[in-house]
């Protein structure tokens, strides 16, 4: 499955990249192809990041929501778009929860 990772980045040291990279590693071990927004370069405006990541999300079959995603406006937008696109939705810490 092509899976996009969503979670909080703004206001977190190193933009929470460690959590994104750990999730990517685990998803890859499970056979997923991972779209990881933490690989984007520093220095863009937030609106530019959102344009890029929403395009990435539209290429995915599923989304993996990192812990505390509800505290992030960007991750909330990604979650709602994923629902609208009817992607599979998985949540970190809840292995048996899958929404489609």
Automatic annotation (TrEMBL):
Highest rank taxon of the organism: Bacteria
Pfam families: DUF4406
InterPro entries, alphabetized: DUF4406
Gene3D superfamilies according to UniProt: Hypothetical protein PA1492
Name the record gives this protein: Hypothetical phage protein
């Amino acid at each position: 499955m092509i899976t996009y990772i969503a979670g909080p980045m703004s206001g977190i040291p190193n933009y929470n990249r460690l959590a994104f990279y750990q999730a990517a590693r685990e998803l890859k071990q499970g056979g997923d192809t991972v779209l990881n927004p933490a690989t984007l370069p520093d220095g863009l405006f937030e609106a530019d990041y959102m344009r890029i990541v929403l395009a990435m999300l539209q290429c995915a079959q599923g989304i993996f929501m990192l812990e505390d995603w509800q505290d992030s406006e960007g991750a909330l937008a990604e979650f709602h778009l994923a629902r609208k696109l009817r992607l599979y939705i998985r949540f970190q810490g809840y292995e048996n929860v899958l929404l489609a």
